[in-house]
Design goal:
This protein is an all-beta fold. The chain is built from no helices and 19 strands.
């Protein structure tokens, strides 16, 4: 018989063990990400990692140890996360043909990514180490749950000799609602009274309109989304864009 069990982390740290189905044949040597759930709330974010190992010739007992790695943000290095419930080895009963174990972590941070590194060891009947190796799972990526404001198409029409009507599409490409916010257009050297947009649900857009001085072909229009920093965004670097004058010659 194989030993197969699991560990459920309800939060970091902490946990409770539970039994799983025991296969009847030798399992492969591997470590895998078997489930990755994402969501706006930390309680919706979880990762499940599974590892398995077959007994070798002369093996009396097998052990494995999981280590959780975390990478904060969209890039950078993975760093070890200390999880007390993961601090000890998982041990097979003597003489088993294989060992399978599963660990699950919940309450993950975002944006971030998580991997597990598993150390496998085989011991003979005298307790001597036969072999040691490591496997790393693929990553469970937790996307940024915040809204992301994006300036869309800017259009315009001439109103009279000196003024024009400008319309700007603003999108929320993020994963949560953007509360009402201002949009400022600078035409020439003149900052116009702000347009107010929103609230914007994820994946939606709204068209804002203002009457301002008439720009000429070759002029530029500066657009600044949320100049007051009302919305906590996933990406702030694209909130200021410059567009050519949208009016005909």
């Amino acid at each position: 018989m194989l030993l197969s069990c699991g560990l459920l982390l309800l939060a970091l740290p902490g946990g409770v063990a539970h039994a799983a189905t025991t296969p009847v044949s030798k399992p492969p040597l591997e470590a895998r990400l078997t489930a990755c759930t994402t969501g706006l709330a930390p309680t919706a974010r979880a990762a499940t990692f599974s590892a398995s190992m077959p007994a070798a010739k002369g093996t009396r007992r097998m052990t494995m140890r999981f280590r959780l790695l975390q990478r904060r943000g969209a890039g950078g290095r993975y760093k070890r996360v200390d999880v007390p419930a993961w601090a000890s080895d998982v041990r097979s009963e003597p003489g088993r043909p294989g060992l399978i174990f599963t660990k699950r972590v919940e309450g993950l941070l975002a944006p971030a990514a998580y991997k597990a590194v598993v150390r496998f060891r085989w011991y003979d009947a005298k307790g001597r180490l036969q072999r040691e190796t490591f496997r790393t799972t693929s990553a469970c990526r937790q996307p940024d749950p915040r809204p992301d404001l994006v300036a869309g198409v800017l259009t315009g029409r001439v109103r009279d000799q000196d003024t024009a009507v400008y319309e700007l599409v603003v999108r929320n490409d993020g994963r949560s609602v953007a509360d009402r916010f201002a949009v400022e257009l600078t035409i020439g050297d003149l900052i116009q009274p702000p347009i107010f947009v929103g609230p914007l649900a994820p994946g939606t857009a709204e068209r804002g309109k203002l009457v301002g001085p008439r720009c000429r072909p070759g002029d530029e229009v500066r657009i600044e989304l949320d100049p007051d920093g009302t919305v906590d965004e996933a990406v702030e670097s694209d909130d200021v864009v410059v567009r050519p004058c949208p009016l005909p010659a």
